[in-house]
Write a structure and sequence with these properties.
Elements (H helix, E strand, L loop, with lengths): L27 H4 L2 H9 L5 H14 L45 E6 L14 H9 L5 E2 L4 E2 H4 L2 E6 L7 H18 L2 E6 L5 H9 L6 E6 L18 H5 L10 E6 L6 H10 L2 E4 H7 L1 H13 L4 E7 L21 H13 L4 E5 L10 H20 L17
Parallel strand pairs: 1-4, 1-5, 5-10, 6-7, 6-9, 7-8, 9-10
Antiparallel strand pairs: 2-3
Length: 402
């Protein structure tokens, strides 16, 4: 029975100023301040895993020199701190060298360093490195949502898929193999692209592990649904091929943000023929991001059992994401993008990807930072709404290598 959407979490109510001791009743202006409520919510979060990480850092990295007053600081950097040091896994999560252990975690990050599908500016093969590098800037805690990813879920970095430069089809098989393995393990797959040609093999990997139907919410400025481009399955083609999979119907493909001067007419013709769903930036201006998210969810979940999120970083206004191959002015503002991702992810996802981050064209890592934020906001929304792990219910096939 399709359409099993999760319940959205209730918004946090107002609360007094944070304080571990007694506090005075809030004044009228304070009672309406969501920031104070968020501060109060932090007091209820556990700290056990952070303390355990500090203890492990001391064990592995040697206690600090005698002049160091904070005795939680080791001699060698291990764990989150300091943010400018250490080995850059995603959010400095544990690196799972033996991929057979990936199922021990709630979510796993996979890099897909492939840009063989680019039709203009290449460089997205360095996207996973760029996103991981800037992820050292973040803590696992979000103030507004009151979510701490370290304390409320388990996350690992599974490393990168071994893609084959200059061979699309072999790389697609490698990507599908990797995604299918991680998905079958029960871990939630978070994919760091790579160009958008990976959108087909990522969905194929998940779809191969279930008999259930999958919807797709695809955020982009480009339709990416023509059959071929330059005689190959390039980054303009993934959703033609993804919606040819037996359990991925084109009626459940929802594309948000499409428009501008970079949408080939061949793609428009195919979208019209397949009766997919397209929301333009004009729709977002007319209806607002909350209403568009609501409509996108209804269409993607209609008769399906799970939804996959594909986020192309070029869906944002080009001024905010210079590090991408096909920038297009007039896209989403960062707050709109994060709101959309939070609303979509709150219902639960079966996987997600962020694609088209090209660090060679980036400025001060701001494009990589936005991609990072999309990933952690999607994880945080699922944690906050109790929907992380919802995808496990549709796994009903054994992993068979591609």
């Amino acid at each position: 029975d399709g359409g099993g959407r999760g319940r959205r979490g209730a918004a946090a109510g107002p609360g007094p100023r944070i304080c571990r001791e007694e506090v005075a009743p809030p004044r009228p202006a304070e009672a309406a301040n969501a920031g104070l409520a968020a501060a109060e919510k932090e007091a209820a979060l556990p700290t056990a895993r952070w303390r355990a990480e500090q203890e492990e850092a001391l064990r592995l990295g040697l206690p600090g020199a005698s002049s160091i007053e904070d005795r939680t600081i080791p001699t060698f950097s291990r764990g989150e701190l300091p943010h400018f040091a250490g080995i850059n896994t995603f959010l400095k999560a544990p690196y799972v060298e033996d991929i057979r252990d990936v199922g021990k975690y709630d979510a796993a990050v996979l890099g897909v360093p492939f840009d063989g599908g680019c039709t203009y500016r290449s460089g997205t093969r360095f996207g996973p490195q760029g996103i991981r590098r800037i992820s050292a800037l973040y803590t696992p805690y979000n103030y507004e949502t009151g979510v701490d990813l370290r304390e409320q879920m388990t996350l690992c970095d599974a490393g990168d898929v071994f893609t084959i430069p200059a061979n699309l089809e072999k790389s697609f098989d490698q990507i599908s193999n990797a995604v299918a393995h991680v998905f079958a393990s029960g871990a939630f797959p978070v994919l760091l692209g790579g160009d958008h040609s990976i959108g087909f093999p990522t969905v194929r990997g998940i779809a191969s592990m279930t008999s259930k139907r999958i919807g797709i919410i695809h955020v982009d400025r480009h339709a990416d649904i023509q059959e071929k481009d330059l005689d190959e399955r390039m980054h303009t083609t993934p959703y033609f091929h993804a919606t040819n999979l037996p359990n991925v119907r084109p009626e459940n493909l929802v594309q948000v943000g499409i428009g501008g001067w970079q949408v080939p007419r061949a793609a428009v013709e195919e979208a019209r023929r397949r009766r997919t769903n397209i929301f333009t930036m004009g729709d977002i201006e007319l209806h607002g991001i909350e209403k568009v998210a609501e409509m996108a969810l209804e269409l993607a979940w209609d008769g399906t059992d799970a939804v996959y999120l594909s986020y192309d970083i070029d869906s944002l206004e080009a001024a905010f994401v210079p590090g991408t191959g096909w920038p297009e002015p007039g896209g989403l503002l960062p707050r709109e993008a994060l709101k959309l991702v939070g609303l979509v992810a709150a219902e639960g996802l079966c996987g997600m990807e962020v694609v088209e981050v090209s660090p060679p064209y980036d400025v001060s890592d701001i494009t990589s930072l936005m991609a990072l934020r999309i990933c952690v906001d999607a994880l945080g929304a699922q944690v906050a709404n109790g929907t992380l792990g919802k995808h496990r219910s549709i796994i009903d096939k054994e992993f068979t290598p591609f």
